[in-house]
Design brief:
Blueprint lengths: L20 H8 L27 H20 L5 H15 L9 H25 L18 H15 L3 H12 L4 H8 L3 H18 L4
Helix pairs in contact: 1-5, 2-3, 2-4, 3-4, 6-7, 6-8, 7-8
Length: 214
């Protein structure tokens, strides 16, 4: 998936995860299931001149795969992606026309997707706490080229993520799975840069402790 701002890999300083970077790269390579009439996730950010009018059909055709890719890796499950897409584009019915610059639509949809994923993650944690969540596997989010050992490692990453508060999980995932710069993590998360850094650091500590024996 390309970076939301169209830039290359971030070079700013943040907690690094030396033990599981191989696993993270395998997550990053996974595309969502193709959706008909959707633009490729890796397509560059369109310019204002290239964007169609802000009608919902055009938005869905152009951005549904992009929204799916963000939801897919933030949630770690493909069974929640379609419902998340519906939520995002229902929100677009109400709010996208407030976006005056057509070139800003992509980033606006990304923020809405992050908010929708956050709500789903919070509900999932509650279901897990109550013993109501179904056991899950993570094969769908692992690159097909991964070995059995690598698959186990990726699944372990996601099991740790499942135990994190939603805000920490999202900040860490945006930073390390999506490869976003810290400023973009803060913008997408709807928080200050300092708060984004704290969330990433807290999640990184939990993951590093979980991988201390690797």
């Amino acid at each position: 998936m390309s970076h939301l701002d169209g830039s290359g890999p971030p070079s700013d300083q943040a907690p690094r995860m030396p033990r599981d970077q191989g696993a993270i790269s395998l997550i990053r390579l996974v595309p969502p299931d193709p959706r008909p009439e959707s633009s490729p996730v890796s397509s560059p950010v369109a310019t204002a001149e290239a964007l169609p009018a802000l009608d919902l059909d055009s938005l869905f055709r152009r951005y549904s795969a992009y929204v799916a890719a963000i939801a897919y890796r933030l949630l770690g499950r493909d069974d929640e992606v379609d419902d998340t897409i519906q939520e995002v584009f229902l929100a677009a019915v109400r709010g996208v026309h407030a976006v005056r610059d057509p070139a800003a639509v992509r980033a606006w949809l990304a923020r809405v997707t992050v908010r929708a994923a956050r709500q789903r993650l919070r509900k999932r944690r509650l279901r897990t706490f109550l013993g109501l969540d179904e056991p899950t596997t993570y094969d769908a989010v692992i690159d097909r080229s991964a070995t059995a050992e690598q698959r186990a490692l990726v699944a372990r990453v996601y099991r740790v993520l499942d135990g994190l508060p939603a805000n920490q999980r999202i900040a860490w995932s945006l930073r390390y799975i999506e490869g976003e710069a810290l400023e973009d993590v803060a913008s997408l998360s709807g928080c200050s840069l300092a708060t984004a850094k704290r969330r990433i650091a807290a999640a990184a500590q939990e993951i590093e402790e979980a991988f201390a024996d690797v």
